[in-house]
């Protein structure tokens, strides 16, 4: 299945065939990365700070998550979070304040 066949409301295929992250609220294409960091897991042996990031929050999951915060030129703000769980990387979008 390619990106054009998938129904992911925050992912779009650009004219260059590269996937782009769009605003999950209004589908506007233009955004900027404001922050990237580690959401630290609760298991002190399994959780880690991802290289090049700092701790910007905590999660109830055992392992840490990687957080990327976007500011859309539309005025919306959202987080893309990649949460590791049992060898699988779960992807979640969270709408933040406007």
Task: Please explain how this structure is put together.
It is a single chain. The protein has 98 residues and is mostly beta strands. The protein has a domain at 30-95. It has no helices and 7 strands. It has a 5-stranded mixed β-sheet, with no helix packed on it. The chain has a two-stranded antiparallel sheet with strand order 1-2. The radius of gyration is 15 Å and the shape is elongated.
Number of strands: 7
Span between termini: 34 Å
Beta-strand share of residues: over 45%
Radius of gyration: 15 Å
Structural class from helices and strands?
mainly beta
Element-by-element helix/strand order: EEEEEEE
Number of helices: 0
The helical percent reads under 10%
Q: What is the overall pLDDT average?
A: 87
The largest beta-sheet arranges its strands as 4-3-5-6-7
- The general outline is elongated
Biggest sheet architecture: 5 strands, mixed
Low-confidence stretches: 1-6
């Amino acid at each position: 299945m390619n990106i054009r066949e998938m129904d992911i409301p925050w992912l779009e295929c650009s004219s260059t065939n590269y996937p782009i992250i769009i605003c999950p609220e209004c589908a506007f294409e233009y955004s900027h990365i404001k922050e990237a960091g580690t959401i630290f897991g609760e298991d002190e042996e399994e959780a880690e700070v991802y290289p090049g990031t700092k701790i910007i929050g905590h999660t109830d999951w055992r392992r840490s998550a990687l957080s990327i915060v976007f500011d859309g030129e539309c005025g919306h703000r959202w987080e893309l979070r990649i949460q590791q769980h049992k060898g699988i990387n779960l992807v979640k979008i969270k709408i933040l304040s406007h």
